[in-house]
Write a structure and sequence with these properties.
The chain is an alpha+beta fold. The chain folds into 2 domains: 107 residues, Rieske [2Fe-2S] iron-sulphur domain (Rieske Iron-sulfur Protein, 3-layer Sandwich), CATH 2.102.10; 242 residues, Naphthalene 1,2-dioxygenase Alpha Subunit, Chain A, domain 1 (Alpha-Beta Complex). It contains 12 helices and 15 strands. α6 crosses α11 and α6 runs antiparallel to α12. The longest helix is centred in the last third of the chain and has 21 residues. Bound molecules: FE2/S2 (inorganic) cluster and fe (ii) ion (FE2).
Length: 400
């Protein structure tokens, strides 16, 4: 697709409507998305607690790029391009490990945990080793989450940090541990996955577990207004007493690429578990189980739901126009021991089912939008307003 056609596609966008088919299926749009959205913005890479000790590292591949995130002997986390400064070989082939240094598999150049090349190259290569360190990648940590940006000049992170840091602090993600993860290759465009994430209009048909615990589908329904307002007021007062930040009770993120809000669970639900019971020790600074859920969203690659006792974070990585890798992480308090304090079959099913229900419906959408029969449909003004916000943000990014 020529640049002109990309422009025409953008020009045809109508706020409040789904996108034209090309946005979901065209390889040229996908390339543009990777260059403009994913190489420029902050990407969720992983959690602090995945690399607790000096020498711990993980890699995260975004398109053709791969980033190493490693903890140094000084305890600091750094991010580097996973590219050897000699002739460019990818250095770490694995997803994680622990090592005193990174050794290139080609000619064995070794780099220390700060990215410094540990060999004298002056005589043989004519360049000082100090000029041949691993190229750093911009990295920010907030509330136990690690974000990287491949851009030379990444977007400002300060405003996001100001919202995310106080909201995330009590959840204790930085001191948590990963209980387990699940990885999916979803046969859908990354935007289909986000559009689906940004509304609960589909929840009654798709998520029997989720709607028992949460108010989402009753929100903005006049019949439930009074009940929700009373519950919200009571929770807000309680949370304020406990020192929990309550930035917002709605999930709107008008214009912004980040948000965090704390939302009441329905009465009787302590946690997003199948029966609402607490299923692991309290996390972070939570004094009791009455903390609702902390919901965090960072476009274009991260969302998280935190209950009193566990948190579930999701990382979205596009692979192709119609394929997206999704990794789901279940986190519990750092001191919690499997078997003694929690069981995977108690903490996992709620979000495993909800996630998989979403992937199934997203794959159905991808099939539809790729077909000759597809024309964009109108979004619901209230129940899908956050989908419209996401798409406005997306199209705005392309135009910028
Ligand atoms: S390419 Fe890495 S050592 Fe030669
Ligand atoms: Fe869903």
């Amino acid at each position: 697709m020529a640049a002109g056609s990309l422009q025409a596609l953008r020009a045809a966008y109508r706020s409040g409507w789904a996108l034209d088919a090309g946005f979901y299926a065209d390889p040229a749009v996908f390339d543009q998305d990777m260059a403009v959205i994913f190489a420029r913005n902050w990407q969720f890479a992983g959690h602090d607690c995945e690399i607790p000790q000096a020498g711990d590292w993980f890699t995260h591949a975004i398109g053709r790029d791969s980033v190493i995130v490693a903890r140094g002997r000084d305890g600091r986390v750094r991010a580097f391009h996973n590219v050897c400064r000699h002739r460019g070989a990818r250095i770490c082939a694995q997803e994680r490990g622990r090592a005193p240094a990174f050794v290139c598999p080609y000619h064995a150049w070794a780099y220390d945990l700060t990215g410094k090349l540990m060999r004298d190259t002056t005589a043989e290569h004519g360049v000082a080793s100090s000029e041949l360190g691993l190229r750093p990648v911009a990295m920010r940590q907030v509330g136990g989450l690690i974000f990287v940006s491949l851009a030379e000049q990444p977007p400002d992170f300060a405003a996001a940090e100001a919202v995310l840091a106080p909201a995330l602090r009590p959840q204790g993600v930085a001191r948590a541990k990963i209980a387990t993860t699940a990885e999916y290759l979803v046969q859908a465009n990354w935007k289909v996955i986000w559009e689906n994430n940004r509304e609960c209009f589909h929840c009654p048909t798709t998520h029997p577990e989720y709607i028992r615990a949460n108010y989402d589908i009753q929100l903005n329904d006049p019949r439930h207004e009074a009940e929700i307002a009373a519950r919200t007021d009571a929770c807000a007062a309680d949370w304020k007493r406990k020192g929990l930040e309550v930035p917002s009770l709605q999930s709107d993120m008008t214009g912004a690429w980040y948000r965090a809000n704390r939302t009441p669970l329905r009465p009787g639900w302590a946690s997003e578990s199948l029966d609402g019971a607490q299923v692991a020790p309290l996390m972070g600074e939570y004094p009791d189980a009455e903390v609702g859920t902390l919901r965090t969203t960072v476009f274009p690659s991260f969302w998280m739901h935190g209950s009193c006792d566990h948190a579930v974070s999701t990382r979205v990585t596009p692979v192709g126009p119609d394929q997206t890798k999704v990794k789901v992480y279940w986190l519990v308090a750092g001191h919690a021991q499997e078997g003694r304090d929690y069981r995977l079959d108690r903490i996992m099913p709620f979000w495993q089912r909800t996630s998989e229900q979403d992937w199934t419906i997203c794959e159905a959408v991808q099939k539809g939008v790729q077909s000759r029969g597809y024309v964009p449909g109108p979004l619901a003004k209230v129940k899908e307003r956050n989908v419209a916000q996401f798409l406005d943000w997306y199209v705005g990014q392309l135009a910028a």
